[in-house]
Amino acid sequence: MTPMELHNLKPPAGSKKSRKRVGRGPGSGMGKTSGRGHKGQGSRSGHTHRFGNEGGQWPLQRRLPKVGFTNIFRKVFQIVNIADLSKCEANEIDAKTLVEAGLVKKANVPIKLLANGDVDKAYTIKVAASSKKATEKIEAAGGKVELVTKAEATAGKVEEA
Questions:
Q1: 125 and 118 in contact (C-beta within 8 Å)?
Q2: Which domain covers residue 143, as residue numbers?
Q3: Structure pTM?
């Protein structure tokens, strides 16, 4: 088998298609009017039509019913389960610690703690939100959940009050 090198590369079969050459005689199937038909707006140069325009027919996007609802005031959280906290070595956990442990992707998006799993040691956790069960489990293990404001959580300036 030959090694993969630049001069050996070929596109997959059927992925490349030669362009349509119009106006090249009747044998091509695209001669004479070049697929534009006879007369009318569509046969003239410069003719374009708007996307979704169906020429007087009620457009598809207006015939179909509206579906669903988008809440523009929705709060977006990154989710952390208490079972995953064991991946953090530190007992004091904040957004930076969770990012370093790979439990969340960004330190500037608010984090919510959920009660999925069990706690093995006492943690002091600083997050934007926590479920009641998660808070109860952490406190039962001797830990503490501190809720920080969005500004503190997103700026990474999580300080003790």
A1: no
A2: 78-155
A3: 0.56
